[in-house]
Amino acid sequence: MPLKPEEEAELRYTYDALITLLSDDSAFDAVLHAVFTNIDSKRDGTLDHKELQRYIAETCEEMGLEAPHRSQCRGIFRQLDLNDDNAISTEELGVFLRHFFQEQVAICALKLRPPRRP
Fold it and tell me: Where does the EF-hand domain start and stop, copy by copy (predicted)?
């Protein structure tokens, strides 16, 4: 099904913004810092399980989604905590965000591709 013009415009804007973030290290670092600072409520330079769980719950609520169960949040935390020190650093969050943005670029590209003709 073809996209509506406003949907296509929004998707193209998102695609272009993500491409810029992924190709400009200073822009990526600025976004990473903003996201990390938003989650790091204790302002100690690392993210603990409770901070991540609170952020996920708030984000889900803003999007009208049900928050994942505590055990699911623990699983997400373990995946992000690459060095198993029970804390998520800026660098570890950066690895996740870069991968997430790359995946979103691929999804946008697929949605923007014209449908195949039979």
Answer: 27-62, 68-103
Helices (H) and strands (E) in the chain, counts: 5, 0
Average pLDDT over residues 10-32: 95
The pTM of the full predicted model, rounded to 2 decimals, is 0.86
Only one residue has tokens 């998707």, namely: 11
Domains of the chain: 5-112 (1.10.238.10)
Cα distance between the two ends of the chain: 14
Query: CA angle, corner 65, sides to 59 and 69, nearest 5?
Result: 85
Dihedral of CA atoms 83, 86, 90, 95 in degrees, nearest 10, equals 50
What is the Cα–Cα distance from 43 to 51, expressed in whole angstroms? 10
Asked whether the beta carbons of 59 and 39 are under 8 A apart, the reply is no
CB 19 within 8 A of CB 102: no
